[in-house]
Structures are given as C-alpha cells and as structure tokens.
C-alpha cells in the first residue's frame, strides 16, 4: 500500500501522520512514514533547518529527485508506506511544483490525500516556524493551489487511485477517520451536514450538533465541515467593527490570536466561495450525506439554506440522503421527497445505520486494489 499525502506548508502533517502510523502499529499493521522533507535534509546536511526552500531551485529539484529514488526503491521492495510531501511550494521563488510526474507514475500510489486546515491554525504555525510574511488571503490561495495540484498529481500518475480531501481538524480528533480511510476503505463514508453560522450563538443547539457529530463518527468515516470552520470569522469581524473595535481575537492551537477585522472582511468572499466548492467536493467523495436538523428553542427546525443546498446537491449526485429531523414541526416535501430516509431522532438513525452498514472486518487498500 502506497499513500501519498500532501498539504501546504503550515499543516504540520508529520506528527499527525506519525499518530496514524502508531495507531496502525498498535492494531497489528506495519506501515512506514517517509517524510520527504526530513529525508532531503538528511541527504544535504549543509542546509540549515528551515532554509531548504531558499536554496537554488535546480539544487532543490535534484535533491528531491534523489530522495524520491530511495523511496521508489523501498516501494519496489514491497514496503507499505505513507509519503508525506507537498504538491506545490509558494516561497521566495514564487509558485513552483513539489513533485515530478515521471517519479510519481513509477510510485503508482494506491491513494492520494490532500490535507487541509483552517486559516487560524495555519497562521499560527507559519508565524512560529517560518520567517516569510503572509496575509490571510495568501493562506486561502495556497490551500486552494495545493488541493488542485494534488488532484492533478493523481490524475497524471494513477487516475484509478482514489483522491480525498481531508481536514486535519483540531488536535488529533480526525486521526481515527484517517486510519479508517487507509485500512478500512469498505467502511461507509458520510458527509455530515448541519447548520453552523446562524446557530453559533445558541448553546443548546450547538450541544445537539456536537453529540450528532461525535456519534456518527463512531460508526462511519466522516467528512465533517465543522473540522474546517471559517464562516464565523467575517461574522465576528462585522460585530467588532460595529462595536468600534479594529480587531477580533480567537483561540487557535491553544493560544489567543488577534486578526485585523477589516482584513477578515476583505477575504469574506474568498472564504464563502471556498466553503461552497469544498463542501460539495466532500459530498462527492462520500457515499452518503447525513444531515442533522436540530430543534430551535421554539420547536422550529434549525435548517439553513446551506443545508438545503447540500441535500439537493447530494440528491442530484445520486448519493443516499439521510435526514435526522429533531424539530417538532414536520419536514417539508422538499426534504421528504429527496431523502432516502428521514429519522425523528439520533437513536433511531444509529439503530438503522448499525443494521444496514455494519462495521466491516479490517481490510487494507493494498488488499482491495493490488
């Protein structure tokens, strides 16, 4: 099994992927993590830590190709491995690729994954680890470029291999899902749909949603838009400006971070367009959509236009559509006519999923595809 994992600078994939490998080892599976950057530094000890992107591009490309030859040799020897790399770099040299098609074709990966993260933790990590200045707009652009370049890598080297976009999420909360994606590919994949921005000031509703997210994740591989949530930032920025404040403060990676409110509002359209495109892509890479419609304090349904659009997209993409309707009022015909099944509570949905989609015996991508 060969898995290529990409992600822009600032994702901090290495400890995350090591946690995936440690989980695999604890469950009797052997898989090797090849951190391409570390291997390049090991081959060129004269390069100071954190400065490899400052060397001439010709040397950088040659160094990468040399290390990739070692990785190809390990793959030919039958090793199961995760290649931790990048698809692109945007540095002082400008934007440039971080892979070569000829070597990627010879690697013949079984799975391609592009990891993404929210701009708040990306900003914190880049500020801690890299001297290069960046704007929040830069982070949005780099993230989108990395997704597109990874998909091009997959199509240009092994278009039969699955490609997934996976949110890193806070802490190590998504490691289990990542492990399942590698070793339990027959487990059902679900996109989780629920209202977000317009209920963020309702603690009772938020608790219902958190319970839904945690419960479904125990059963399936879940692609959760809540693991990459940025829509609240423009809301906070607008509130700050209305109150006469120039900045907002949020918590990211355990520390308080200040962002300029006007800079946030200047990228609001970019945030919204990426949410729109990314959430539909997550639906497309899933087997189904599971939508949770909580009840508002007055008993009405907390259904947003975004949830309605996600349900319609999933229906038109021929995905199974499951709706958990908590509200006292009955769902409209536009919900019932597009849903595979409507449940009136989370326990009812879980009973159905456990019977229809039992947890499969552990299998591997290698076992299914090679």
Count of DSSP-assigned helices: 15
Which CATH architecture of the largest domain?
Answer: 3-Layer(aba) Sandwich
Strand elements, count: 14
Share of residues in helices: 40-55%
Total of domains: 2
> Which oligomeric form is depicted?
single chain
User: What does the main sheet amount to?
Assistant: 5 strands, parallel
Q: Report the order of strands and helices.
A: EHEHHEEEHEHHEHEHEHEEHHEHEHEHH
Supply Rg. 22 Å
The chain-level mean pLDDT equals 92
Spatial strand arrangement across the major sheet: 2-3-1-6-7
Q: Under CATH, the topology of the largest domain is which?
A: Rossmann fold
User: Can you tell me the CATH superfamily of the largest domain?
Assistant: P-loop containing nucleotide triphosphate hydrolases
Keywords:
alpha/beta, Rossmann fold, 370 residues, 18% strand, globular, 5-stranded parallel beta sheet, 2 domains, single chain
Question: What does this 3D model show about the protein?
Answer:
This protein is an alpha/beta fold. It folds into two domains: 1-183, 3-Layer(aba) Sandwich (Rossmann fold), CATH 3.40.50.300; 188-231 and 262-360, 3-Layer(aba) Sandwich (Rossmann fold). The chain has helices at residues 13-26, 36-43, 57-76, 101-107, 119-129, 136-157, 175-183, 203-217, 232-242, 261-266, 268-284, 305-316, 333-336, 346-356, 365-369; strands at residues 2-6, 32-35, 81-84, 88-91, 94-97, 111-116, 163-167, 189-193, 221-223, 247-252, 255-260, 288-293, 320-325, 341-343. A five-stranded parallel sheet has the order 2-3-1-6-7, with helices on both faces. It is globular, with a radius of gyration of 22 Å. 38% of the residues are buried. The model is unreliable at 364-370 (pLDDT under 50).
């Amino acid at each position: 099994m060969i898995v290529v994992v990409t992600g822009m600078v600032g994702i901090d994939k290495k400890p995350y992927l090591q946690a995936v490998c440690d989980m695999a080892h604890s469950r009797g599976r052997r898989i090797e993590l090849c951190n391409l950057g570390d291997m390049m530094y090991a081959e060129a000890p004269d390069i100071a830590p954190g400065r490899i992107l400052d060397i001439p591009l010709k040397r950088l490309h040659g160094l990468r190709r040399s290390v990739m030859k070692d990785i190809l040799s390990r793959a030919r020897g039958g090793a199961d491995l995760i290649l931790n790399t990048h698809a692109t770099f945007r540095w002082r040299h400008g934007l440039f690729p971080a892979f070569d098609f000829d070597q990627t074709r010879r690697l013949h990966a079984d799975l391609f994954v592009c990891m993404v993260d929210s701009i708040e933790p990306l900003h914190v990590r880049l500020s801690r680890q890299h001297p290069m200045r960046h704007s929040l707009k830069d982070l949005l652009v780099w993230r989108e470029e990395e997704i597109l370049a990874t998909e091009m890598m997959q199509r240009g080297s092994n278009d039969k291999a699955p490609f997934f976009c996976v949110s890193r999420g806070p802490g190590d909360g998504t490691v289990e899902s990542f492990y399942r994606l590698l070793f339990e590919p027959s487990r059902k994949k679900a996109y989780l749909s629920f209202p977000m921005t317009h209920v963020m000031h309702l603690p009772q509703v938020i608790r219902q949603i958190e319970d839904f997210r945690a419960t479904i994740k125990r059963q399936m591989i879940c692609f959760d838009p809540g693991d990459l949530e940025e829509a609240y930032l423009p809301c906070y920025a607008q509130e700050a400006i209305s109150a006469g404040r120039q900045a907002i403060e949020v918590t990211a990676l355990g520390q308080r971070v200040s962002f300029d409110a006007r800079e946030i509002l200047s990228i609001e359209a970019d945030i919204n367009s990426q949410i729109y495109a990314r959430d539909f892509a997550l639906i497309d890479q899933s087997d189904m959509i599971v939508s949770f419609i909580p009840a508002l304090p007055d008993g009405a349904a907390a259904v947003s236009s975004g949830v309605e659009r996600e349900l319609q997209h999933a229906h038109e993409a021929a995905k199974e559509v499951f709706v958990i309707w908590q509200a006292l009022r009955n769902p409209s015909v536009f919900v019932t006519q597009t849903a595979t099944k409507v449940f009136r509570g989370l326990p009812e949905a879980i009973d159905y999923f456990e019977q229809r989609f039992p947890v499969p015996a552990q299998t591997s991508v290698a076992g299914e595809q090679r």
